[in-house]
Every structure is written in structure tokens, then in C-alpha cells.
Amino acid sequence: MKTLIPILMGLLVVGCGHSTETIEANVQKTIQTKYDSDPTTQGAIIDNVELKKAGDNKYNGFIEIIEADGSRMNLDLEVTVNGDVFKWTVKPPRELTAKANTKPEPKPKQETEKPGELTKVDLEKVKELYLGYNQLTSVKGLEKLTQLEDLWLEDNPALTKAQIDELQKALPKCEISSNPIK
After folding, report:
1. Is 128 exposed, middle or buried (0-12, 13-18, 19+ CB in 10 A)?
2. How do the domains of the chain map onto residue ranges?
3. Are strands 45-53 and 128-130 parallel, antiparallel or unpaired?
4. Which of 40, 39, 22, 20 shows the shortest CA–CA distance to 30?
5. Which helix (H) or strand (E) holds 77?
6. In this structure, are residues 8 and 87 in contact, taking their beta carbons and an 8 Å threshold?
């Protein structure tokens, strides 16, 4: 898979006190402009930017890119706000850093469970989960992910605020990003 740009740095002037959504929109616009001006990344679409506040002036999240060939890629994104200026950094995909390892990945052990079924031990290991754009109608079962720290549920229009609130009560240590309409 073609790498768009492993590490990008950008500066953009914004006013103090802007919301996360405003910062996301401005970052998305400036990265798209940067990609459009670079012949190696022309045709790529910056489809989505999701940020969460990680400190006084820091935001972490991801950026979703649709490459010219239609493939999708999610990359980690960091934004630092300093007065009226913020700096954004898009990090390379994690799988690129693993290419230096020449040993083949071991094949997973055949489990006695049904394929695709997670065990309780598996559920206890999940810390981040991205379920945006999945047409979810329920969040039932997610309360079992007791170690979950970050959960993205954006753009699942059938989910309700009541469902998200109930899930938040069940997972008080988890930061849930969602935009329920109902």
C-alpha cells in the first residue's frame, strides 16, 4: 500500500477558545490542501478527523484518508494548540514500523471457540474500539469491554442519546465519542 505522507507537520492560525469540532474542521481542510498540492498524494480525500482533548493544549485522535485507488487508511493524529496557533502531526501507520521485523508473524492458534467469537479474556484486553460509520442500532454487549478507554461511535444515526448515556454509566472510565441524533 502506498504511503501518503509518513509524517506531516502543519501550522494554522486559529483563534483562542475554539471548539474541538472547529479544530478538527480546520485540520481537515489544511491537510486536504497539503495533499492536493503534493503530486504523490493528489486524489486522496481526507474523509474524517476525530480528536479528543488530551491535556490543556493537546488533542489526540485519528485521520481517515481515502486514497486515489479507493482504499482507506486511518492514521494517528496529534494537535497542539499554542495561543492562536496549532501544530498538527500525522503519524505513519503502525504496520510500516513493523516491516523491519523479518520474522513472519506466527499463525494464530486454532481456538475451540467459534471463529469470530471473543472470549472473556479477549474482551478484557480491548482498550480502544472504533465503530464509526457502521449503521449500529444497539450498543448491547459493549458494556462487557471493561478495560475500554476510548470508544468511537460517530455517524451511527440509529443510536440514541439514551443508549450512549446508559453505556457511559456502564463504562465510567471510557471516553465515548458519539453524535446521536435522537
Report:
1. middle
2. 8-96, 120-177
3. unpaired
4. 22
5. strand 72-82
6. no
Find the largest Cα–Cα distance for the chain.
56
pLDDT tens figures, 69-116: 888 888 888 888 776 676 878 776 544 333 333 444 444 444 444 456
The secondary structure of 9-74 as a DSSP string is EEEEE--TT--HHHHHHHHHHHHHHHHHHSTTTTT-EEEEEEEEE-SSSEEEEEEEEE-TTS-EEE
Task: Tell me the pLDDT tens digit for each residue of 1-33.
Answer: 344 433 333 333 333 467 888 888 888 888 888
d(CA 4, CA 72) in angstroms, rounded, equals 11
Q: How far apart are CA 182 and CA 180, in angstroms?
A: 6
pTM exceeding the 0.85 threshold for the entire prediction: no
C-beta of residue 59 within 8 angstroms of C-beta of residue 51:
yes
Specify the residue for cell string 453524535. 179
Specify the DSSP element, H or E, that contains 8: strand 8-13
